[in-house]
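Morning!

This is the sequence you dropped in the shared folder:
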Amino acid sequence: MRGADILVDMLIGYGVEVVFGVPGDTNVPFYEALQQREGSIRHVMARDERSAGYMADAYGRFTNRPGVFECPSGAGAMYSLPPVAESNMSSVPVILLTIDIPLPGEGRGVLTELDCARLFDPVTKMSVQVKSPEKLPEIIRRAFRAACSGKPGAVHLQIPEDMLLAEVDPARVSLHVETECATFPAYPTLPPADKLDSVLSLLTTSKRPLIVSGGGVNRSCAGPEVTALAERLNIPVCTTMTGQGTMPDDHRLAVGVIGDNGFHPHANWALEHADFVLFVGSRMGSVVTIGWTFPKITLNKRVAQIDIDPEIMANNYENAVSVQGDARFVLQRLIDMAPADNDAARTQDWVNELNALRANFWENAETLLGSEAAPLRPERAVRCFNEALEAYGKPAHIYSDAGTPTPHMTRFLKLKDRRTRFAIPRAFGGLGSALPATIGAWFADKERRPIGMFGDGSFGMSVGELETLVRLQVPAILLLFNNGTFGWIKGLHRLRGHNQCFGVDFLPPRGQAIAEAFDVKAWTATNSRELDAALAEAFAYKDGPCLIDIHVESIADRVPPVYSWLAKRGKDPLSIEAEDVRYV
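The structure's back. C-alpha cells below.
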C-alpha cells in the first residue's frame, strides 16, 4: 500500500469530503490516489494556492469540520501562508498538506527546496515534516486532533513526495481514526461547578447586565444557547464584529455590534454603562476595545470571560471570573442552572433603555439608508441588499472581505434568519479572500446560497477564481464594490487632515465585462433602482455564479462608522444622529 493511498484513506476515514488545491510537480502521487477514490472524496482545483486556502477557511468556518487544502513545494507553500495564518488566528480548523521534494534531496540544491515545517511553525498550532511513511497514519491523527481540540486552528503537514510513493505494509501500521477529532469541538471541556455558580450569581444580581457574543460563539455554533440564556434571564446581547449573527437582529434583546469598526453607538454605550459584562468567545482585542481605550469606565472587576483558550483569560482586563470551556457546552450548563422563575422585572428598565436607543438610532439612520445621492452611497447599497435578502427568504452563507464592505455592512446589515451565517476574516485583514471563499462556503452547505462581498482592490487579487466558480457551477452571488481605490488606506491618508494621498488609486475595473469574459452572468448598478433590479435577478438566477458591479462611493470620501476615525475628526462616536462626516 503506497503512502499516498494511506493518506487518502485516512482523510476519507475522517469524513473529509473535499480537498482544495493546486497541481504541481511534487503532488502527482497524491492526485493519483485521489483519482482512484473519486467516489469517496473530491478534489477542487483552485487557480492559486492562496485561494485554495481561503476556500478551506470558509469550509471550516461554516461547518464543524476542518477544511483541507494542499499545494506543491516551493512557491506553492509560500502562497499558502496568508490563509493559514488567518485561519489559525481566527480559530478556524484547517489542515494544509504541502507535498514537498523527496527527502534524499534535502540540502543538495533541489529546485523548490524549502523548510516548510519551520516556515509554517509561527502561524499554526502544529507544523511537522513526515520523515517515515509508516508515521503517516499517526501524524494525520495528530493533525486532526490538533486542529479540532482545544482552541481550533490551522495545522501544516510537510509530506515529502517519496513518503507518498513508498510501499507500506498495512500490517505494520494502524489506519484507525479518532472519530471525536473529525469535528470540532473534539473533547470539549467544562469548568468546575463553582465557576458557573459565580457567573450565574453575577448575571442574576446585576441590574444592568450585558452579554457580549464573540467569534467563538459562531465557531461553536452557540447562537441558540446565547439566545436561550439571554431570554431566560432577560439580558441584552451585543456582539463583536465576528460574533455578528449570533441572534436575529430584530430580536428584542439584540442590541448591536460593539467595538471600533462598523459599531453601533447604542451598543458601545451599553458596554460603558453595564454593571456586569459576560464576554463569550472573544479575545477582547484592539478592535473590540478600540485599542484598549474603551469603555472609558474600566471593565476591571465587572467582566467575566467564557473562552475555550485559557491563555487569553484576563489578558487585557482584571476579570471577576474566568471560565475555560467550549462556549456551547458552558452556556448549555448555565441555561440548565438558571432559575426558571427569574425576575425579569429586575432588568426590564435596562432592556427598555437600550431598545429606545436602538430604535432612535435606526430612525435617524433612515436619512442615510434612504439617500439617493450620487454616486451610490454604501448605506443605500446595504439597504438594497437587506431587502433583497429578506425577499429571498432562504438561508445564505455571506463572506465579506475585511476591507471596503466591512464598516457599513457591519453597522447596517440586518440578519433575521438564524440559518444565515456572516463571516469576515478579521485576524489579519487580508484582501482577496471573499471571492474564493464562496466556493468553500458552497461545499460547506449546498442548501445555503454563497454570497461574497469585496472591493475592487480585493477583486484584482483573486479574479482568476471566476473560472473556478464557472467550472464548478457554484451559484455564488458576488457583490463588487467598485470605486477605483484602496478606500480604507486612502481614508487613513485623509485622516491626517489633507488630500495628499499617495499610491492608493487605480483604474476602476470594468467588472461586468470581466465577469462576462469568464461566462459569469453579470450586471452593473450605479444607483439604487439598478441595484434593486440586479439583486432581484441575481437571487432568482440558478444557472451558476453571477456578479453585480456596484459603482459606489468610496469610504475615503466620507468618514465611515469607525469609532477611532470619528473621534479623530472631533465627533462624538456615540452620537445617534445621522451625519455626513468629511475628512477635510
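Headline: The chain has a mean pLDDT of 95.

More detail when I'm at my desk.
O.
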